[in-house]
What we know:
The chain is mostly beta strands. It is built from no helices and 16 strands. The strands form two sheets. A 13-stranded antiparallel β-sheet has the order 9-11-12-13-14-15-16-4-5-6-7-8-10, with no helix packed on it. A two-stranded antiparallel ribbon has the order 1-3. The N and C termini lie far apart (44 Å). The model is unreliable at 1-68 (pLDDT under 50).
Amino acid sequence: MMKITKLAFAFIILICVFSMQSCENEPLDSDLISGVSDDTGNDDIGNDDGGTDDGGTDDGGNDDGGTDDGDTSGTGEDSTGDYWPRAIGNIWNFDDTFYGSVTYNMIGTEEINGETYYKFDDLFNSESWLLKSGDSYYIRTAIGGYTLPGYDVTTSYITTKMLVDTAEVGEEWVSNVSYTISYVPNDSNYPDVPDIDFSAVYNFEMMGRDLTRTVEGVEYENVLHVRLTLVAAGTGSIVDYFYAKNVGLIEFVGDQSAGTLVSYSLN
């Protein structure tokens, strides 16, 4: 049975952050994410009045990046700034309602398909890498964060375009991904289980630009607000991400999980 669980970020997000868990033969309930109102004195989620460009809506529904289907070439536009700094030794410390206190550390670089990715030691409980291509930011990860007694569970890697820093308010972009979940018995008492092929649609929308947002008592300027609507296994879930220029992800908000940046150190 397939269970979608929103894991820490929603960056995860993941970040937004999600794990697929299989157990027995029937679908289990889903622990879904939905948008929530912000009670910290900031604008309500989805209603960022400050810094919003009323003319930013795109008639076609997708920005120039469109549906990427694994493409990491970006939109062809120059970046408007660095909203997820990449350097070995960069550290972000988060207070996460699912995992508690967590640290995301960039530990090195790897060449993947001719592109230089920055590797995290552990992002949203999964092996993950970050790539910036022009104005577009991609996360490569193996969906993880789950176990199944009697089996070693692995998935193929997926790549999602988490952020387009040139997108105007109302513009959307899509990542269509497919992956395989494999179950290998590690105990002779457990039967073989066939691989399961999955597909998911990650719909992103720019909700606000040039915002000011206070997180853990720190006021951040030049903040982008991006909303992810994930459609997988016939269900949908939503998570909101907030990125500060020259800082990175500062907050994510979902129905069942949320996280706030407590401190960071950038090289």
